[in-house]
């Protein structure tokens, strides 16, 4: 179970002289799945990298249980907060079991022996991600979907109560995207892990999020339940895209249909409520 | 069921550790074997019994000189330099996740070499002071290359290109100093251009051994963090590694190793560059390449010196032989990079 509280308050950060986050305030609800969406370069990745200490904020604070993340001992932080970056690197020839066991890094030191607890963590990470049968295979021989499951297994072996994931579904086929998101939801349900992830696909975000956050130009534009956040107005403001939001008959969550300049035969006319041949203007 | 799977996990882990130990033992045995061969088989063959007696300090007519004075210092310096080059080289390659980021490609070896030549020829220094001079210059070059290639963090490709440029400049500095040293013997000059263990003496061994223990120890104490860096800087940081601090310590330790070895034997070409990738091939399944690479470096220098002394027509310094081995691999790497398209 997890009741660690992760809070960003007035967080500003960026690279070199370019500030990307401008005083971002966000409270991550413990034990829930939080999904962050937003247009390119709005600071989604920068936010994850700042709260996991890869970037030092220029103003404001990232707090874990009230303590500044940037002043905590790095190993203590790594036992509570895990991050799966966008493009981690698998050393050449490394096997799945070996890679997953690297997740135990913050729990070990130069002279400490490998413990039963470490083995149990690796075992349960492999089982939870259904990568047990791959354990002896070299990671570089796996398919994209399998590889992503292995990386998640590694993050699981770290046994953190909070897990941050930067676009965990990018480059995956749709079936593997669903598989990864289901896996993370299982994890949240069974272990109570707080999941915070950046997703590109708004509809998947709305389907899997308990708490949806839309960022725009380095600040939280709106946050709340998917129903509160994924609205036509939000999409228009955050992405500058004309759209319709309807209810997904499968999940009951909102689903967004983009409106472009072409193929708009079935646009629903606002006034008549019937399909119209006319293109909708902003 | 739960027990069954964890038993598999434990068995897998033990098998990994066992396989790694076998690799280490094999490499160690290889180094010892080549070491023994270089001591007993040269122009004349000295029986192993006599070699042992010389090593134990007993007077053995004839072998005293050929083994004790000629072969032993040579072999000892080869091993020490090989260990230093192998360990220092792979540390850079692992840290920057790029086989081309080896100290002999990115100018650190040339920097240490130029400083050593300058210290010896122009300042008439000798002994440990030369090493200190070389280490300081090596660190200076490392910082220079690092600084010049820094923009939003260090990109491997940029660092390598800057390093190759700096290296070329320093090579010309070495050539210039050697040219303006009138009394310089050709053999000594060769030493600073390609590296050699000709004229090695046992009293050179102690400073190099201390450097190996200090800097090698520092590096190995960071081996877990260095291993985490192989997963990418972000992943390493997420696992609790202090990336910037680790990098700084690794640079100091690796430069210390490379510069000390360079000050003692000259820049034995491509040993730092070759050892890591060869060790990686031997270890294969992702285990730490640090110690395997050090042993590979020792085996490379020992074997290359033996080949250069006894198996080729004429005698060549060890650096000529390792250079002939390393150049094709460098070309292969560059061709591969070209084919993959950009990212080294």
Automatic annotation (TrEMBL), chain A:
<keyword id="KW-0067">ATP-binding</keyword>
<dbReference type="GO" id="GO:0005524">
    <property type="term" value="F:ATP binding"/>
</dbReference>
<keyword id="KW-0813">Transport</keyword>
<keyword id="KW-1003">Cell membrane</keyword>
<keyword id="KW-0472">Membrane</keyword>
<dbReference type="InterPro" id="IPR027417">
    <property type="entry name" value="P-loop_NTPase"/>
</dbReference>
<dbReference type="InterPro" id="IPR051535">
    <property type="entry name" value="Siderophore_ABC-ATPase"/>
</dbReference>
<dbReference type="InterPro" id="IPR003593">
    <property type="entry name" value="AAA+_ATPase"/>
</dbReference>
<comment type="similarity">
    <text>Belongs to the ABC transporter superfamily.</text>
</comment>
<dbReference type="InterPro" id="IPR003439">
    <property type="entry name" value="ABC_transporter-like_ATP-bd"/>
</dbReference>
<keyword id="KW-0410">Iron transport</keyword>
<dbReference type="Pfam" id="PF00005">
    <property type="entry name" value="ABC_tran"/>
</dbReference>
<keyword id="KW-0406">Ion transport</keyword>
<keyword id="KW-0408">Iron</keyword>
<protein>
    <submittedName>
        <fullName>ABC transporter ATP-binding protein</fullName>
    </submittedName>
</protein>
<dbReference type="InterPro" id="IPR017871">
    <property type="entry name" value="ABC_transporter-like_CS"/>
</dbReference>
<feature type="domain" description="ABC transporter">
    <location>
        <begin position="6"/>
        <end position="242"/>
    </location>
</feature>
<keyword id="KW-0547">Nucleotide-binding</keyword>
